[in-house]
Write a structure and sequence with these properties.
Length: 499
């Protein structure tokens, strides 16, 4: 994920890049089309995310369009998305400790705002979080909610992409002229005065008097704002859904082993089964609940989402198109102006409750971690916003994302931190990433880790993430056919995959 600002880690990454790190990753990609991947393979941002996309879809997409999709995937690792726990499938940690959540939005944080919220604040905001007062105290219950939040995030993003694909073609099934403008996805669509929904709003060809596209640049602006080019909107939402799926494998113990040997400065073998070294599930197959077609949840009918032109902070007096902020970020869940039909609560909250209820009905009332195949599933704690409040981590008591205990930058250390589940890179993230998938043994040093990279936890996480990226594309295209019919869906896929 790479969301932590750490100058020492940045120096280490530069050193790893200088050593040619990333050459070994080409061996891990399913299709071997490494020419599309940018940068050294040092993290699931950006190189490993890129490699998962290329390995799964590199032979289906034109080079420019593939690059756009890679950047859409990576956009979730920028502000404000890096503090959205659902976007990264974090916080599914269910060991028996007391959770510490706060309900104040991060955007109001100040240097002195470091203590738990006052009782009156909790009373005011608790209704905007599912079961806040009880869920935060139950480790297992909170972990179930976090996993459902991760599933809902990916599911809704991909299905929003399906909805937005309706703008790609005209009534005759031909690509709209707008799909050829602003091919690098920089031009934000001007806020309309009357269009209540995105579908059809971007279909007209640009007029000569219209706003000129932004200057040519290889950096798209993926900020959840609707673009003049409808292809950009579809790619962004699908890419954000992919990010959550790929991060699940990098941040959980689904596809890794616990460490069975001791590092020179930490007794991992003696801590197996604790937050410092939770057991790995060693799966080489994809996570079953990311099979959205079998999830038992209905996609949102976005045409029926109620909209209200409500000013957001800093925009008083201006007419605001709330679709410009859809789907609402967690920091805007109370102020987005979107609601589900017949439900006056903010969209983000009402939609989560709807998703949870449909899931439980489809699975006989069993929460996800009650499934036998999912017992023992964990992902690390990351201080960020979650579906039931702002998460505050104490990584010596809880399963850490990056772990705990900063190390000196010594030649022998495999990573910067002791403990932690993250496998964002082979080296420099956590020791666990470099451990052998089959045996859990740690390499003796960095050189041995590089030689044995193909058998590491990191390599397996990347392989499985690549498999699931291909599965998500299959689900997306199946939903296009179910929504628009085989003929229009085929034309949409051509628009989305060709440069």
């Amino acid at each position: 994920m790479g969301r932590e600002s750490n100058p020492r880690r940045a120096r280490t990454r530069r050193r790893w890049a200088a050593l040619g790190g990333g050459a070994s990753l080409s061996l891990l990609m399913i299709c071997g089309t490494g020419t599309f991947s940018a940068g050294p393979a040092v993290a699931f941002q950006p190189a490993a995310h890129d490699d998962a996309v290329t390995g799964a879809l590199g032979d289906r997409f034109g080079r420019t369009t593939l690059s756009l999709l890679q950047r859409a995937v990576m956009s979730s690792d920028s502000k404000p998305y890096w503090s959205d726990g659902n976007a990264h499938c974090d916080d599914i940690d269910n060991l028996g400790y007391a959770h510490d959540y706060r309900v104040r939005d991060f955007e109001y944080a100040t240097p002195e705002n470091t203590r738990p919220d006052r009782p009156e604040e909790i009373k005011e905001f608790a209704r905007y979080y599912f079961d806040f007062r009880t869920g935060r105290r139950a480790a297992r219950g909170a972990a179930d909610l976090q996993l459902l939040g991760c599933l809902q995030y990916g599911f809704d993003r991909v299905n929003l992409a399906v909805h937005l694909a309706g703008d790609l073609l005209d009534a005759r099934g031909n690509p709209r002229p707008s799909v050829r403008r602003d091919v690098w996805c920089q031009e934000v669509r001007p806020v309309g005065s009357g269009a209540p929904a995105p579908r059809g709003a971007t279909g007209a060809a640009p007029s000569a008097a219209g706003s000129a596209p932004a200057a040519a640049s290889p950096e798209p602006r993926f900020t959840d704002q609707l673009k003049a080019n409808p292809k950009c909107n579809v790619i962004e939402q699908f890419g954000r859904g992919l990010h959550a799926v790929q991060d699940f494998y990098a941040h959980s113990n689904w596809a890794d082993s616990e460490i069975t040997t001791d590092a020179r400065d930490f007794p991992y073998r003696k801590r197996i089964g604790t937050p410092a070294n939770p057991r790995g599930l060693k799966n080489t197959s994809v996570f079953p609940l990311f099979d959205y077609a079998r999830l038992g949840v209905r996609p949102v009918d976005y045409a029926k989402v109620e909209r209200e032109a409500r000013p957001l902070p800093g925009e008083a007096g201006r007419r605001v198109d709330p679709w410009r902020y859809f789907p609402p970020r967690l920091t805007q869940k109370v102020r987005s102006g979107l609601t589900l039909p017949g439900d006056g609560r903010p969209y983000q909250v009402a939609r989560f409750d709807q998703f949870r209820d449909q899931y439980l009905v489809a699975h006989g009332g069993r929460p996800p971690l009650g499934e036998p195949a999912l017992r023992g599933l964990q992902s690390g704690c990351y201080t960020e916003q979650t579906i039931i409040g702002n998460r505050i981590c104490d990584e010596e008591r809880q399963i850490g994302h990056y772990g705990f205990g900063d190390r000196e930058d010594t030649d022998w250390a495999l990573s910067d931190r002791i403990g932690g589940l993250a496998k964002d890179s082979l080296l420099d993230t956590t020791d666990r990433a470099a451990a052998n998938l089959r045996t859990g043994e740690l390499p003796a040093d960095r050189e041995q880790a590089e030689r044995a990279a193909a058998n590491s936890n990191f390599a397996n996480a990347l392989k499985v993430a690549t498999k699931d990226t291909a599965r998500q594309w299959g689900y997306f295209t199946q939903r296009l056919r179910a929504t628009y019919g085989a003929t229009r869906a085929a034309a949409m896929i051509r628009v989305l995959t060709t440069d």
